[in-house]
Structure formats: C-alpha cells, structure tokens
Automatic annotation (TrEMBL):
The keyword Nucleotide-binding applies. This is Oxidoreductase. FAD binds at residues 44, 108, 138-140, 316. Disulfide bonds join 35-40. The keyword S-adenosyl-L-methionine does not apply. Keywords: FAD, Flavoprotein, NAD, Nucleotide-binding. One of its GO terms (biological process) is 2-oxoglutarate metabolic process.
Amino acid sequence: MLGGGAAGENAAQYATQFSGLDSVLVEGELLGGECSYWACMPSKALLRPGEVLDAARHVPGVSSIVGDARLDVPAVLARRDAIVNGLSDASQVQWALGAGIDVIRGSGRLAGERTVVVSTAAGGTRTLTARHAVVVATGSFPAVPRIAGLREALPWDSRDVTNLHVVPRRVVVLGGGVVGCEAATWLSALGVEELTVVYRGAELLPRQEPFAGRLVADGLRSAGVRLLPERGVSEVRRADVRATGTGLPHGGEVTVLLDDGTTLLADEIVVATGRTPRTDDIGLSAVGLADGGYLDVDDQQTVRGVDGQWLYAVGDVCGRALLTHMGKYQARVAGEVIAARAAGRNPGGDEPSRLSTATGHRAVPQVTFTSPEVGSVGPTEEEARAAGVDVETVEYDLAALAGTYLLKEDYTGRAKLVIERSTDTLIGATFAGTGIAELVHAATTAVVARMTVSSLWHAVPSYPTVSEIWLRLLETLEAQRRKTERG
Ligand SMILES: Cc1cc2nc3c(=O)[nH]c(=O)nc-3n(C[C@H](O)[C@H](O)[C@H](O)COP(=O)(O)OP(=O)(O)OC[C@H]3O[C@@H](n4cnc5c(N)ncnc54)[C@H](O)[C@@H]3O)c2cc1C
Ligand SMILES: NC(=O)c1ccc[n+]([C@@H]2O[C@H](COP(=O)([O-])OP(=O)(O)OC[C@H]3O[C@@H](n4cnc5c(N)ncnc54)[C@H](O)[C@@H]3O)[C@@H](O)[C@H]2O)c1
C-alpha cells in the first residue's frame, strides 16, 4: 500500500485479514493519514463543543443557566489535541503490526510493474516487489488557487485551521464548500470576532440541494459571520510573513482584495477551495500513466490504463468521493478483490456485487457538521435530472415535527426526497437541521436497497423522533400525487 491513511490501512487490513496475504504499508508521514490528525477527527472535536452550547441555549431551563457563556477555548483545544493523539501514530502502528501488516516509514514511488522504491525515513532506499498488487492510497492535499500574493502570504490551510493553537481575532475564509463552512462554524464558536467567508457561487455547499446552503448561510449570519457570495480574491498582501508552524499565525496583518473592489483586513486567511490528488511525484510515468491528476479506476478499484490488474487506487487519490467512509469502502472492496484474484478468481467478471464498488457509489452519504447540520445521500434533484433521470421530489419543513420541537424551540430545517419516477424508488435524500446526522444512514439503506415508496410506508418511525420526517414526506408526496391525479 502506497500511503497509510484511512484508505490504505483498510485495504491492507482486508487483504491480510481475509486472505492471509502479506501487506506492507508505506507511509511518509503519520499512519492514519489526514482524517485522524488534520481533517475529520480534529474538525469534529472543534465543532462538538459549539453544538452542545448551541443546543443548551435553545432549551428553556438550560438556556437561563448557560446565559451568554462562551466556550472554554483552552479546554476545547486540549480535547482536540487528545483526539489527534498529540499527532503521534504510535497506537496506529501498534494496531497495524498486531494485524500482521508491516509498516515502512518513508516516501514511496512506483518504479515499474508491482515495484515500489521507498526513500526511507532512515535515509536509505528499499525496493519492494509485490507478488500480487500495489494499492495507491496517497490521498490529497489542499488546492491553493493562483491568486497574486496568496501563496507568498502563507495562508492557513485545512491542517492549520483544524490544528489551530491561537484563535485569530479577524479571519477571512476563502471557499464556501464543506471545509469552509465547517471551519467558519468552529472559528465563530471559538470566538473569532470578525469572520468573513468569500466564495464563488450564489450558495454555500454548492454540491447540496440549494436549501441546505441557504439554511447554513442563515445559521452563520445569525452567529455574526459576514458572507460574501459570488466573489473571488484578486490579490493578497501580507506584512511580516513568517513560517511559524501549523496552526500559529503566519505573519502580520493580511489585506485581501476582492474582485468587486472590496478590501478586507484580517489576522489570518484560510484557504478552503478544494483538494489536489497526491499523484504528481509517485512515479506514475514509470508505469505508463501521466503524472498528476486523479487515478481513473473501475468498480474493482483497479487503475485503468495499466495491464495485468496489479495496480489499484483507493481513497481521495481516485477522486470518486473525497470522504473517509467512501475511501474505506473502496479499500475493503479492493482488499478482497486482490485476495480473490490471488486465489485465481475473477471478481471483475461474473462475481456478485460484494466485490464491486458500483452500488455504494450510487448512494454516497455525507454529513456536514455545520449549524444546522446537512446530511445527504445519492444525487440531488439537479444532479439526477442532469444525468437524464426522470424524478419526482417532495420537501417538508423539519420544524413541523414534535421530535424537532423537543430538540429546539426555534428549530429550522428542511428535508427532501428524490424519487425515480419509472421505478418509484428512492434515489436521493437531503436533510438540513439540528440532529439530522443519524437520519442519513436510514436513507442510505433505503437507496442501496432500492426501496419503493410503497414499501417505505411500512417502515414506521418512532414517536417523537426526528425520523418522523419520513412519514411526513410520504404523506406530502401522497397529497401531491392525488392533487396531480385530480388535475
Ligand atoms: C478539514 C477536513 C475535514 C474533513 N472531514 C471529513 C469528515 O468529517 N468525514 C469524512 O468522511 N471525510 C472528511 N474529510 C475528508 C477526509 O479527510 C478524506 O477523504 C480522507 O482523509 C482521505 O483518506 P485517504 O486515505 O484517501 O488519504 P489521506 O488521509 O490523505 O492519506 C494518504 C496518506 O498517504 C501518505 N502518502 C502520500 N504520498 C506518499 C508517498 N509517496 N509515500 C508514502 N506515503 C505517502 C500520506 O502521508 C498520508 O498519510 C475531511 C477533509 C478535510 C480537509
Ligand atoms: N464533513 C465532511 O464530510 C467533510 C468535511 C470537510 C471536507 N470534506 C471533504 O473534503 C473535500 C474538500 O472540501 P473543500 O471544502 O475544500 O472543497 P469543495 O470542493 O467542497 O469546496 C470548495 C469551495 O471553494 C470555492 N472556490 C474554489 N476556488 C475558489 C476561488 N478561487 N475563490 C473563491 N472560492 C473558490 C468553490 O466554489 C467551493 O465553494 C470535499 O470534497 C469534502 O467531501 C468532507
């Protein structure tokens, strides 16, 4: 495995555990990768305290006790540090060795068929030749747009903002996607006084149903965050630039010039404008592929364009869905496919769907931990229509439920289902509101199982839970259909 992030680890685990194949993880930094130390885990550690405080503020009997209290920032940062194990991967290495997986520390490059050359941390090189397969799981790093002065200003990226040690007074976040929205949520909760989010499109979270981005925008605005949509940055200037290290201010005041003529002053600028695959320097040209770009894979996660079915790619590097759980899913399948092929079977042929990632990619779930949360699975209405699918949709106000009223007196939220008309099956769902994260898996199950609307009627949600949204959506859909029938 070239890269020992969440995806590489899982591919090694599945190849080893289910087949007895020997696996080696080649890791250049920390075993566990981005998710454990600089992405999912620290970000969620920073978001959870704000969520708890917000919940308390909206329940009479608790709100009066909490009053205007702010978060205990040193305690929040200390818990974050504990959650990232103080940036030590000792426990991960122990896990790998215990699972029978070898770990080699160093930077690896493909050097030919089934061959990886590692520049080891100790200073030498090692050539590894795999008997069966090489899995590329090198992940991605933050993309920094070409903007005059931006790179020179040493902006914070996702590593800095998840591992911040100082809360700057004024921050500009560039990008209104998942990282930008989540980072704005925790920076605001941690007490950034002047927080501005600059983004290109009209809505935040542009890959979600538009109502989700609007509700997140309302949440951020009510927390005092300034949103500047449909704008870009034309130039960045910074005095006294200093490479102080991850999560510390990288210099003096930042001047951010926007393309509409606005000038913003900040103590830090956070770049959250997407990711770049780590493929520019891993020896792809040695196996006949172009350096750089996402690796194109089939549903067994085998890299296309390389003969012999020995090269696989999983996780962010294959660009199919840049999410930890999807990378791990691809890795589980790849690990088992490698084992099956080593045993002489051909899972790419008529093997049943367990050894294919096609089904899971029809139903990609994602939760964005903003306030309100946004959870979704499958395509949005726009994506489904763009793919040529004739769909029917239904929406409902999540605030009109007993379960949500109990959570928060002034609850706001919305839900939407996307139904394929020809089969009457659920293909997509989106929920935006407090406490919706755990609704997503029910929707994922229904989409994967291709549940029809008539069978969903028999899945009875418990009272009084947020899951009652399912019943309300079905009732509304039925009313819509009757109205259409009546003409
Ligand atoms: C701020 C933030 C928050 C996120 N939150 C979530 C979330 O809540 N939920 C979610 O599902 N996803 C989340 N993501 C996305 C998630 O972090 C990624 O999808 C996931 O980390 C990808 O895992 P990976 O194993 O493919 O890559 P990585 O985690 O990037 O691992 C790749 C590994 O390969 C190593 N490597 C690279 N090149 C070489 C080489 N040449 N030789 C040796 N080793 C090498 C790297 O050091 C690294 O350890 C978040 C991302 C960000 C930025
Ligand atoms: N909770 C989660 O599941 C979670 C959390 C964080 C990140 N992630 C994953 O990490 C990946 C990366 O997230 P991201 O937010 O960096 O990328 P993204 O692609 O989700 O969003 C990038 C945003 O930056 C904007 N942008 C791009 N270039 C710009 C420019 N020059 N000026 C202004 N705006 C610009 C885009 O319009 C978009 O709003 C995502 O694919 C996501 O799946 C997941």
